[in-house]
Amino acid sequence: xxxxxxxxxxxxxxxxxxxARSPFGLIARIEDGLPIDALERxxxxxxxxxxxxxxxxxxxxxxxxxxxxxxxxxxEGTRLARLARAWSLALDVWQxxxxxxxxxxxxxxxxxxxxxxxxxxQSEIGAELVLDILGRLKYGSAA
Length: 143
Fold this sequence. Notes:
This protein is an all-alpha fold. It has one domain. About 65% of the residues lie in helices and about 0% in strands. It is built from 8 helices and no strands. It has helices spanning about 1-10, 25-30, 35-45, 60-70, 75-95, 95-105, 115-120, 125-140. Helix 5 packs across helix 6 (about 95-105), helix 5 runs parallel beside helix 8 and helix 7 (about 115-120) packs across helix 8. The radius of gyration is 15 Å and the shape is globular. It comes from Ancylobacter oerskovii. This is Antitoxin Xre-like helix-turn-helix domain-containing protein. InterPro entries: Antitox_Xre (IPR011979), Xre-like_HTH (IPR046847), Xre/MbcA/ParS-like_toxin-bd (IPR024467).
């Protein structure tokens, strides 16, 4: 359950919303549309010097529409939560935002020399590969 709390924290969901911090509560929040602020927050955490990073998750024209509506679509929220999950685990493994970013933004041989961040954004299967590598690092097996 802690992992879902961490994802909710990364997304900036209010701590007082206990329901949004459970697995099914988080699913419901994503389906209802995460606030656009969650995209801003995650983008700032992962790529603080890159004002365009958020457009890798939501194209610029779509972003402007979402900004007006103050909500992301379910698919965009799912992608964002996937990224928040990878960030949360990378931070747990590396214990440093700088080191977590270095891991996510540097090519990795177990990902065919792709950057973990790109693989996570690309697909759920890619995210599972990255989470597996992070799990191996955390629990001491080869990665």
